[in-house]
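Researcher: Here's a chain I'd like modeled. Treat it as a single chain, no partners, no ligands.
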Amino acid sequence: MNIKSCKNKIFFSFLILLTLTAFSCKKNKNQIPQEDLIQINVQPSSETEALKTENQLWHVTNKRVCVIFGYDFNTPEAVEKFTSLLQDRYGLESEGGLIYTMTYPDNFKHGGKAYATELASLLTGTDRDLAGILILGAPENTHSAFAKLQDYWEMNVPYPIYALFPQDDVLGLESTCDFVLDKEQQTDLTGDMAPEETVSEIILEAPEILTDCIDYMLQIEGPFVKDKTLPKHVQQMLKNKKIHHYVDPESGIQSINHFVLN
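Model: Modeled as a single isolated chain. Structure tokens:
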């Protein structure tokens, strides 16, 4: 083989390699369609820019995460504790941050009485661009509000809903939330629950779980799919804490999106 023939062979081999590489890159890009991604539109203003400091942990965005304080989390002490945590880590809406909060029953009153179902009106009536909803200690009938939310969005709510340590109907929340997380109930020697100890443990563990959930919520930018990948998401979100699926005590059916923290 002469030198010229050898050079031509190398040249054509190089062209084939370039073609295969370009095809491979194009194929990889097509695996994740751009239209499937939820884009965050950053809209900084002079006010939010002025709030930036070296210690600020959040980025300026028009997205908001709604955190709702329900049973066991709605005492003045608990609200102050969690609000302070959220303010330091993400910033509150009033200062250009990511979080706005609601407290049950204070923000749910209608005609002098508090109704958890008012949550649907509060959420559909807002012009906020929601990144997600996270409710701590969901009171009874919260699932009815979320069902109305599903009707409003024609069963395609564009943001995730996480329910932590709820006190609402189990099946209702499972069908209206992306996932539900409970604390395993402890019993004494007589088989009775120990509510005070359980609540204390929940309050103690909740701050870390709350921030882990918000961090993951902002990262995945959208609702979960209720399939076999969901437990992996929850496990990763909770930093590999020990959890197991909730099993209905009457039917023995294991829930796909309801988990119990050991």
